[in-house]
Amino acid sequence: MLNRVVLIGRLTQDPELRYTNSGTAVASFGLAVDRPRPNQAGERETDFINIVVWQKQAELCAQYLHKGRLAAVDGRLQIRTYENREGQKVRVAEVVAETVRFLDRGDQSASAGPTAPAARPAPAAAPESRRAPAPRFEDDPFADDSQMIDISDDDLPF
């Protein structure tokens, strides 16, 4: 049997971090995930999915994720029931995250966290005539990805 959920979306709220009586960290937050196809009216619909994450990863999510941040969640679907204050049975669907990936850089003024790039060792010096300019992390190769590319079918290799 298989119960696997993979989601990419934006946080609808800051993660709420709590601790169980035994001291285990648990964080919960909402994730807004766009549906892949528009509805009959041509509008894109969004699902708002409850996410629960445990232990050290819960603490990292609470520390580095905030409302609006882009994140990927890999986990399993869990349906639980409880009785509310009025005595009614309530069913809740949520994704229990096994891994959470931070997909954007977030606030640049915040301290560097797990989403910061790893420092790279400097390459060995090359003669000045062969040295290419060093790539900068700030250069976003996808900054123009909304631009149309003028390409003909003859240019495609397939």
Explain the overall architecture:
With 158 residues, the chain is mainly beta. The chain is built from 1 helix and 6 strands. The protein has a domain at 1-37 and 44-105: Beta Barrel (OB fold (Dihydrolipoamide Acetyltransferase, E2P)). 6% of the residues lie in helices and 37% in strands. Residues 108-131 have low confidence and may be disordered.
Concise summary:
This is Single-stranded DNA-binding protein. This protein is mainly β and 158 residues long.
List keywords for this structure.
158 residues, mainly beta, OB fold (Dihydrolipoamide Acetyltransferase, E2P), 5-stranded mixed β-barrel, 1 helix, 6% helix, globular, DNA repair, ssDNA-bd, DNA-binding, Primosome_PriB/ssb, NA-bd_OB-fold
C-alpha Rg (nearest Å) = 22 Å
Reported for the largest beta sheet, the result is: 5 strands, mixed, barrel
Please report the distance between the alpha carbons of the first and last residues.
Answer: 39 Å
Give me the secondary-structure category.
mainly beta
Number of helices: 1
Task: Give the arrangement of secondary structure elements.
Elements lengths: L4 E7 L4 E4 L5 E10 L11 E9 H10 L5 E14 L5 E14 L56
Parallel strand pairs: 4-6
Antiparallel strand pairs: 1-3, 1-5, 2-3, 3-4, 5-6
